[in-house]
Amino acid sequence: MKTIKISTTLFILFILSSCLTAGLEDLPVYEEAEITNFKFEYRWAEKEGISDVLRVKPLNTELSINGDKQEVRCKIIVPPADAQRFTETVRNNVMIDNIVGYASISTAASIKPLGNAPVLGIPGDFSQQTMHYEVIAADQKTKKTWSLIIESFDK
Question: What does pTM read for this prediction?
Fold first, then answer.
């Protein structure tokens, strides 16, 4: 029994001390700072029993991305009401100043609003003529300022 305990202890020590310190290739550090997609949605809360439930309705987005100009142009279309959760009453509350925007960006990059541009991922006001976002690549050196232009908001 004592031999099993000693063998187990030695085995565990061997495994814990066998971390490689050399011979590992460096992983690539991404230098891209691109926006590859931009979408919008409307969020609202509904009472269900004793608690509120968050509901989400994606908005139709016609998108044009110009990487050379670092410009994203969007036409947002609110879909028609349906008989389920997205009723006409809910649809009437959808405005350009209370929608949620989110972007797909390069691998491991980050994005932040500049000036008065709304923060992505929370309800914001996208009624401004042009909004600017800075995309910072994973290498933390490459940075690009992108313009978001909402060409139309149709209900």
Answer: 0.80
| CA 117/CA 94 separation, integer angstroms | 19
In whole angstroms, how large is the CA radius of gyration of the chain? 24
Locate tokens 């690009």: which residue?
144
Write the Ramachandran bin of 121: left for phi over 0, alpha for psi from -120 to 50, otherwise beta.
left
Distance CA 131, CA 18 (A): 51
Question: From the DSSP assignment, how many helices (H) and strands (E) are in the chain?
Answer: 2, 8
* C-beta separation of 110 from 136 below 8 A: yes
**Cβ atoms < 10 Å from Cβ of 67:** 12
DSSP of 86-113 = S-HHHHHT--TTSEEEEEEESTT-EEEE
Beta bridge partners of 17: none
Report CA 15 to chain centroid distance, whole Å: 39
Reported as a single tens digit per residue, the pLDDT across 76-118 is: 999 999 988 999 999 999 999 999 999 999 999 999 999 999 9
CA dihedral 102, 107, 109, 111 (to 10 degrees): -10
